[in-house]
Amino acid sequence: MLSPKIFEERALLYKVLSLALYTPSDLESQNELKTLLPAVRQVSLVKMDPETIDKFVDAWITAWDSPQGDLKEEYTRLFVNDYPELKCPPFETYWATGERTIYGHNYDSLLRIYREAGLDRAPDVGLPLEHVALELELMYYLVASSTRQPEYLCLQEKLFREHIEKWADGYSRCLEENAKLENYRATARLLREFVASERAFFEEPKFCV
């Protein structure tokens, strides 16, 4: 039987990654990330390199101590608009197909997961459902709810295998190579390492039968 603590740690990591990849202009999200960072250092059951975690936490603390305009400018360059084009579009379709578009062939699958989880849509944040931050937020919701809703275990596996796994490695490597600020490079490394851990987590047992 899997320990409830493993689900708590997995939910925490999905949550902080979602917040880190969301706009720094949202002060509520930034404050939530600040609140959660100390707990990230306590992760023990999810197989992560402590150095990767420490660098992630330290880099975000440093970013907040720097002029906030720098953080917002970097977010815009990486996630919203860069000339002549975004180097690392934060959307699943690009990394799954190479097409610079959204709402690709796998979008219906993502919608089904939302509906099976009892969600009509993502929070009204003005982002496409396949934005990387929203997919990570959805996974956080599924993991955090799975102790009360065992059927969410299968939805987690579907979301990971059909969606997150398809974009995380390529996107994280692109982000690490192109980010100018260390907090985003550290986020990319944490994402890639956590996804490797999740890949092992979903090997056995299989939750969708």
Automatic annotation (TrEMBL):
Name by which UniProt lists this protein: Cytoplasmic chaperone TorD family protein
Source organism (scientific name): Thermofilum adornatum 1505
Stored InterPro entries: DMSO/NO3_reduct_chaperone, TorD-like_sf, TorD/DmsD_chaperones
Keywords, ordered alphabetically: Chaperone
